[in-house]
Amino acid sequence: MNRMNRLYEAIDVSVFERMSQAAARHDAVNLGQGFPDFGWPDAILEEAAREVTGGSNQYPPSRGIPALRQTVADHYRRHYGHDLTPDHVVVTSGATEALAVIAQALVSPGDEVIIFTPAFDAYEPMVRRAGGTPVEVKLDAPDFRIDRARLEQAVGPRCRAIILNNPHNPTGRLFDREELMAVAEVAEAHDLIVVSDEVWEHILFGEEDFIPFASLPDMAARTIKCGSAGKIFSLTGWKVGWLVADPDLASIAARAHQFTTFATPPNLQAAVAKGLGQDDWIAPMQDGFRSSRDRMLRGLEQAGYRAISPAGTYFMTVDLAASGIAADDETFARRAVEEAGVAVIPMSPFYIDDPDRHMIRLCFAKRDATLDAGLAALERAARFF
Ligand code: PMP
């Protein structure tokens, strides 16, 4: 069979979909795919319902409704002091589409793009689909720090961009100023674009500071940021996201967006614009997720697992090897879902050429009852090995 694109023939079903399907098949608690079962502001749901029945249900402008582009610009001015206008913003169908159109707009065949791993699994195929070659720069467990020398060494003559994800999925790390400055200096020295995937920017627990990449000296002009209302409001199925960049770069990405989805549902955009305009829901949302993080950390510790405490996101990493479990991540994940009744994410699919196979990712953005059921199943799973 050689009629279909070989890229997709070679790619498996995404690990998130695979594990969610397995959870449904085995009636298991799903601590795999990253979606919360609490935490959204009800007012935004009511606003969306009003917009569906009374607002616009027809094609909106391709770059996004003016109210949302303005609100995104204002939101980042208010939170980070960034000097933005609606011309910096392109609304997309989730950050996933933002990343896809950025790759299409940025990468020409033969270009190289640096990806720090472990990484959100969409980056690699998106770079390849645009004709580019992903270059893996590993972050080593348990600290997952950016190593400047390793980064520098990975930059070749065809390198166009670095994809940075901060706060970081799957580890929940926030990169510190020294690490981010290393990325900035390498980007400046080699004239690279930095695609800064900051979808987790508000899912923070207050222990460490999040530094938006565009805040670093001279970086605003070479940064393309991705944001996601799905993450900010704990409504992952909404798929409303955006990219923020210098207006010239944003306009080129907007051309790729016209021929990808063209536009994003206007009623959901309007509801997101309302929600993003005020900030009083952020602290209670963070408190809720901090407490579920702590509950999971305690439960894992009691069950004998070694988990790495995250400073943000919905996720934490468990080091199976450090927990005394010799099985590789895929074996552990398969037996956990099939025999113990809990779905987890094996982390080896988050690498490119050189996977580490001793870690899993857990989603803790769940109600106490879900967490407790998942933890009980993980305790059972630990006894298999
Ligand atoms: N980037 C990262 C790092 C993510 O974790 C996710 C979702 N898991 C996305 C992008 C996609 O965001 P969206 O749902 O808005 O498409």
Structure characterization notes:
With 385 residues, this protein is of the alpha/beta class. Helix content is 42%, strand content 15%. The chain has 14 helices and 13 strands. It has helices at residues 6-10, 15-25, 42-54, 66-80, 94-106, 123-129, 148-154, 177-190, 229-232, 247-258, 266-276, 282-302, 329-340, 368-382, and strands at residues 29-30, 89-92, 112-117, 133-138, 159-165, 193-197, 223-228, 241-244, 307-308, 315-319, 342-343, 345-346, 359-363. A hairpin with a 6-residue loop joins β9 (307-308) and β10 (315-319). The longest helix has 21 residues, at 282-302. The chain is globular. The model has no long low-confidence stretch (mean pLDDT 97). Bound molecules: 4'-deoxy-4'-aminopyridoxal-5'-phosphate. Residues 34, 94-96, 120, 165, 169, 197, 199, 228, 230, 236, 239, 241 line the site of 4'-deoxy-4'-aminopyridoxal-5'-phosphate. Keywords: Aminotransferase, Pyridoxal phosphate, Transferase. One of its GO terms (cellular component) is cytoplasm. InterPro entries: Aminotransferase_I/II_large (IPR004839), Kynurenine-oxoglutarate_AT (IPR051326), PyrdxlP-dep_Trfase (IPR015424), PyrdxlP-dep_Trfase_major (IPR015421), PyrdxlP-dep_Trfase_small (IPR015422). Residues 27-377 form the Aminotransferase class I/classII large domain.
